[in-house]
Amino acid sequence: MKNPIEKTLIVPLTASEAFELFTENMDTWWPKDPFSVTGDTSKVSFANHKGGDIVETGADGSINVWGTLLAYDPGKYLAFSWHPGRDADEATMVTVTFTQTEAGTRCDLTHGGFEILGDTADAVSSSYLSGWDLVLGCFAKAGLTPAIA
Amino acid sequence: MTYEDTITALADPTRRDIIDRLRSGPLAVGAIADGMPISRPAVSQHLRVLSDAGLLTVTPSGNRRLYAIAPDGVDELRRYLDTLWDDALAAFGRAAAEKAKESSK
């Protein structure tokens, strides 16, 4: 679990367009069903500066911060912490690099920071869980999110 | 066993407490329940949920059963995150194709 998750996608846009779609227009494409706290009636806003937040606002006005921008380099690079519903110090990190190629723009996404998990046994440690159970839980479908006994 | 089972199993604070107690090594139910504010049958029930979710292994030892953290227990979570980004980037790709089509009109 320690190695980062790595994904690559080429889109038929310029790097600037791809960056803008990913960030400013995240609300238009992010699969809020099932990957959100309050479902597809929520709105996702993506700050346009370092230090700003990625925020989900539910139809009922509830606010869920998904992460904070650690780097915001338009058309090139994004880095943000990822901690839906949790404290920032329990976050893992996502980076996205936008590279213009002849075929379009290559988007390389990594989701890492799993070293907080330590060894395999530690991966199920309380520190891991406190940081991750709700992160994962809130991204499960609402019906799957368990009631706390 | 799916990631939903894993998430469900881990979302309960008592079960997280149990996992925490097993970090130093395998224990029998009596030792796990020791000092916990719930009954031993309740602890047994939580242990069953954790085992069913693939997070614990159970090994008979004499007339006891020893519970331990399953080494591959969090693999489902990893797969879940993989799915999350696959789905999210697929949606991003579709939106990008749509946007490219619009701007070429």
From TrEMBL, chain A:
Segments spanning the bilayer are: none
Q: What is this protein called?
A: SRPBCC family protein
Native source organism of the sequence = Yoonia phaeophyticola
Activator of Hsp90 ATPase homologue 1/2-like C-terminal domain: residues covered: 14-120
Similarity comment:
Belongs to the AHA1 family.
Domain of life of the native organism: Bacteria
Q: One Pfam family of this protein, by short name?
A: AHSA1
UniProtKB/TrEMBL annotation, chain B:
Keyword DNA-binding in the entry? The reply is yes
Question: Membrane-crossing residues?
Answer: none
> Which domain of life does the UniProt lineage start with?
Bacteria
Which residues fall in a coiled-coil region? none
- Asked whether the keyword Transcription regulation is assigned, the reply is yes
Q: Which CDD domains match?
A: HTH_ARSR (cd00090)
Keywords from the named record: DNA-binding, Transcription, Transcription regulation
- SUPFAM superfamilies for this protein: Winged helix' DNA-binding domain (SSF46785)
Instruction: Give start and end of each HTH arsR-type domain.
Output: 1-89
Q: Which PANTHER family match?
A: TRANSCRIPTIONAL REGULATOR, ARSR FAMILY, TRANSCRIPTIONAL REPRESSOR SDPR
Q: What is this protein called?
A: ArsR/SmtB family transcription factor
Which species is listed as the source? Yoonia phaeophyticola
Q: What is the lineage of its organism?
A: Bacteria, Pseudomonadati, Pseudomonadota, Alphaproteobacteria, Rhodobacterales
